[in-house]
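Batch manifest line 487
LIGAND: adenosine-5'-diphosphate-glucose
JOB: complex structure
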Amino acid sequence: MRRLVCVSNRISLPRRGAAPGGLAVGVLAALQNTGGMWFGWSGETAEVPSAEPEVLVRGNVRFATIDLKPAEFDAYYNGYCNSTLWPLFHYFPDRFTHEEAQHDAYYAVNEQFARQLAKLLKPDDAVWIHDYQLIPLGRCLRQLNFHGPIGFFLHIPFPHRQVLRVLPSYAELVRDLCQYDLLGFQTDDDLRSFLSCVEQPEARLSGQKDLVETGGRSVRVGVYPIGVDVDAISAAAAAAVSQDKVQRMTASLLGRKLIIGVDRLDYSKGLTERFAAFEQFLESFPDNQGRVTFLQIAPLSRGDVNAYSEIRHALEASAGRLNGHFAEADWTPIRYLNRNYTHATLMGFLRAAQVALVTPVRDGMNLVAKEFVAAQDPDDPGVLILSPLAGAAPELTGALQVNPYDKRATALALQTALNMPLAERRARHEQMLGAVREHDIHNWYGRFVHDLTGEIIRRRPMEARDGGDVRDTVPQLMPRPKLLSAR
Ligand code: ADQ
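JOB STATUS: finished
ARTIFACT:
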């Protein structure tokens, strides 16, 4: 069996603690079953980075990291990744900026990743590269004469050609994607958008629907919706109900119903629209005033990027205004928190909620939607309100789906969810649980690795996994000074 080498912008060590970012959970679950290596940036910057990658072994997984120079990190990560590619890929051309120096830093960092990774690769390794920060990496590895299979999975949406064309180096990016052996997307829509790009330039679709032919080579393309570990979450959520933190939170509600939102603080998550919709709900259905609490957990991310500090201030103002207007001496309508929780506590909070608001204005998949479903008590499940603009929407048809910009519809969905009869809640939950099970985390990496290498991953029993178990140990990003979450 080939050794699996996963590469992402940042890597996570299995440790008990908080878990920002869905990518880390997925990669760790794959590696804990296959063994192998995870290569990425350490989370540290240094004016003189060490010449060789630092390697740490935990059980059957090697964690190899490199440092970046501060200026280079800023231009690559805050600049090109999160001010150029992220907004464009999430259909926000108005937030898109383009600086040539940042473009150059993006390509230079990818070349650096390739040079350092090449030192650790063996000829028969299979390399699986993750996400938009590392699109050129496959080509760079080929240029360094690595001939093993290389796959790429995009965790975020892929935009239609009409949007991607805004990027001056659009053709370069598409050409780099065509250098992979296997390209994976979250949804059919993302795959179709990618195909809208390759139908135009020199690449074309072959007779076989999952092959794209370009420059004399074939790229296999596919849809691999990421999922969660359903049994692990269900067990963690049920156990967390008796956890002190969860009990204190539920006791503090004094019998009021709980609406929950859990999202990285990001403009793509639709948080300002959500707060406005909650305000509309309290105005349109005033009987709920004093009877419902909205808990929004939103850990800070990418604080060095302007757009993120702007949204942070906008949300603080909006929560303050709303509470100032509606709160009573004994009731606060919105509890707005910028902190991380352990995975178990978070799953306990999700289980305690009657309604989850998952209303991104654009999202690759959205794991919180799937976690909410897995965390529910099937005998008395909560209701999911979901944006059709999340990648999870086509699977989770049992959710109440509302356009996140439609305040009236979201307010009405909240009222419907809070008053939904048990039988309907159970039927909707049953559909969603079936869907979440069908595309769980093991299915995600198992199918991708199989399509990349032809090999089948056998799941190792929980107790045989080294370095922790995703049920109770969740990845924690390696420490980094300023950003809480930097995928
Ligand atoms: P994210 O944008 O980070 O992921 P999401 O898929 O919702 O979004 O994953 C977030 C993860 O972080 C979840 O597992 C959640 O439980 C955890 N989390 C959130 N807030 C937390 C907190 N306060 N404390 C602890 N944990 C917290 C990107 C893409 C998504 C895609 C994933 C995976 O943007 O579209 O679904 O990658 O591919």
